[in-house]
UniProtKB/TrEMBL annotation:
Matches recorded under Gene3D superfamilies: 3.30.54.10, Replication terminator Tus, domain 1 superfamily/Replication terminator Tus
Any GO BP: DNA replication termination
SUPFAM superfamilies named among the record's database cross-references: Replication terminator protein (Tus)
Organism, scientific name: Aeromonas taiwanensis
Lineage: Bacteria, Pseudomonadati, Pseudomonadota, Gammaproteobacteria, Aeromonadales
Keywords: Cytoplasm, DNA replication, DNA-binding
GO molecular function: DNA binding
Protein's recorded name: DNA replication terminus site-binding protein
Any Gene Ontology CC annotation: cytoplasm
Amino acid sequence: MLVEKSLSTGHNSTSLSPSMECPMNKYELAAQLRTLEQRQHQLLAMLRDFIDDSEFIQGSTFALPPHDPKQDTRHDTPSITVTPAHGLEALYAAHHAWGHLYADAGENTRLVYRLPGAIQIHSRHNEELAGIIDAINADRKTFRDLVTNSGTIIGGPNTRWEFLHSKGMFEGLITLQFYRQITVACDTARSISFCWAHKNTMQRMTKQQIIGTLRASQDSPPRHVIDPTGWVAQLEDEIVLLSALSDDARLVIRRPNPVHPQAWLVEGDSRRMQVASTPVLILGAQKVKIGLLKNYDVTQKRPPRQTKKTANEPLISRLWLYQEQ
């Protein structure tokens, strides 16, 4: 029986949560990560069983081309083609997206895969189903926290990747897929729509803070710099430019994020917005309105609702540094 199956896992993610009081070594960290990874497969199998045992109401997904995070896509991407799927085809695609943790043959583990969409089912076991998803999400968060907070054990991003994908660990693991949470909407959901989002990461800094950063970079040039002398000269020009500004100049780093799909979910009288990386699972018998995600076309980009507070042209383009007007 499905209910009995859901209770047999003995799930307790708190027992594996990172602890600052009890430092781990690399072997203890590896053991905890393996336990979480093994349990993830068990929980995902249970999730599939519960969904397959439920009444399928409707579903739509919108496959996007894989994105390479190493490529600079902060400038507007001209277009992104969406491949829609509906009905059972969308359900199969959603199952794959939720559980696709390891790369297939020839698949690049560093690529980012996104499948916006929504799947609606009606189940007699909503509480158990929601509990399984809570357990999946809790374990994924614990896994991510263990990895990202263990710099003293496994080092920075590059050595971290090597540790996770080393022999005996998780060869072929698509790390971002493992980190992603599965979103659930309850029976109060009324509609879900999709759009393309353009957002900036904003950071206000003083003139002296930026000059200090540039001085430090002169003393320790990045590894990718081929001509250290030219690099130091370029930074000196930037320091001269900033020094000419008044001490109370209002400076901000306005770094654009790559365009990404976004979902608007209306539940009752509330409305929430979230990044649409994987399909939302909607639990309820009353059919919800599921919108479409259109192809992205930069020429159709909607102008911002608010006037920019920064100048149109950056002071230092490579830093995305602007002066507020």
